[in-house]
Every structure is written in structure tokens, then in C-alpha cells.
Amino acid sequence: MKGNRMTARLRTRWVKVAAVAGVSAALAAAGCAQLAEKERELTFRVMPGEASWFSGLPDGVVEMDIPVAGREHMHAWWWQAEQPDAPAVLYLHGSRWNLTGQLYRIDELHDFGFSVLAIDYRGFGRSDGGVPSEDSVYEDARAAFTRLAELEPDPGRRYIYGHSLGGAIAIDLASKLSAGDGPPPAHGLIVESTFTTLPDIARALSYEWLPLQWIISQKFDSIDKIARVRMPVLIVHGDSDRYVPSRFGKALFAAARPPKRLLLVEGGTHNNSMRVGREEYRAALDALFGLTGEAAAERVSSARTLRGH
Fold it and tell me: By CB distance 3.0 to 4.6 Å, which of 5, 185, 199, 254 could disulfide with 212?
């Protein structure tokens, strides 16, 4: 019964997005910006204020502001690892919750041994800006990566992580960083609970017959971009994710170029795979990226992973 109610809510949400987007497209020539903004509001669903479960920052977290295009600023947290040669990861969150709703996952990455730079896109939390857009969050991610490169000068120790919608933002950033002739200025990409394109997931959670690829303006087309990523890719998905079914993670894995790895977390949902599959997650990070050198054979074989060749 609970699953049916959740499915009904998701279907209603995406039908609203489709309806608003369709009207927005029809009125675009007339310069009607209000409906386009409404579509973005429904896509990002920004929750104001602090998350109810946020109880303050852990010791060691440094707050900072990162400039974007010289006009506005993003609020960010920098949590340095204890080890001076630790890898550093850029944390890109999904829709709805700002950084105060992300601390449990940031804490896990820090516990894995990462220094973590986590940002709120403009329009979220204490960052500047109004309603986010696909273009604005891509710009924010690039500005944040520039700051990460200042904090961690060694490209071999830089990583990009994205959860849910943040996974699409991470894939876009990694594809752009891979576009040059030389080696990409990051060593790896980690995406969790993410999708192929926003119209794909909207159609899966509403009605398959809706022509959403022609209606929704915020595309987040990860399935094409991930094929252009030239760094190792770890894709993580809970096999019980009802918001973004694991078939989307499998499709992204199939489209990515090696070296790559897919971790399917048994019993993992949209938000808890890092906690439920903690040891498997750590083993996958070790095996693909060699982060700790402790990827013992028994740990890797026990993890429910699929190796890319």
C-alpha cells in the first residue's frame, strides 16, 4: 500500500512537470518566463532552511563561499581528511535538500578517507541566486571543481561524486573535463542512484506514452555524456530504489567506457546504499581506484559488483 501511494505521488509530480513544461514551450515565443521557472521549481524542489535532522557541523568542517562568474557565490563545506595525502572528492547533491540534509552521506565519504568539498548550488541553502536551472548547476559544478583543484593540486587525487540529480551534474562535469587532449584533471567519477536522462525517469514514474523528451526543457542527458568520460567510473545503485530503478544505473554502466565498475547494493534504496552496502562500497572504491591498497581478494569477491572489461 505504501509503495502504491509513493508511485501515485511520483506520477502526479511528473505529470505536473510535463503539463507545465508543455505550456511553457507553447508560450516561449511570447516570452512567458513564469511557466519556465515553474518547471524548474518542480524539477529541483528546493526546500528552504535547515533539514530537521541537522544538528550542526562536525569538528573540522570549514565553511566557505565560492565565486561563480564573479557575480554570485555558492556556500560550501570543506572537510579535510586526517591523512595529508588523502584523495579529495567534490560532492554534488541532488534535488530538494541543501547541504544540511546531506551530512550523513558526506560523513560516510569522509570516513572512507576522502577530503570532501561539498557545495550548495545557487538557489539552495545559503548560496546566492534564485531558482536553479540545468545550465546554472553545470556552471556551479565547474566553479566548485576549480576550487577543489586549488585545495588539492594533484589531479591523481581528485574525484567527483554525485547523488541522484547530482549524478547527472557530476557526469556533465566529468565529460567536460575529459574533452581535452591531455589526461583529465580528475582521477575518477562516482555516481549513485542516478538516471539516464530526466525525461526517461519522468516517463518511467508517470506514463510511458508521454512524449517528455520533446516537452521537458531540463534534459540532464547523462546517457550520451557518460560515453565521453575518460576516467574510471564507479556506478552505485540500490536494487530496491523505487525513485530511480536500478535499470537506469545498469544502462549508464553499459554506456560508460572502461575502466568501470557497477555496484548493486542488495536492499539499498535511493538514499541509503552507502550505509547499507558500506563494506561493498569501500571494496569497490579500493578495487577500481586503488585508494587504500587494501582490496583483498575476499572483500572484492564478496561484494555484489560487476566488473567492466
Answer: 199
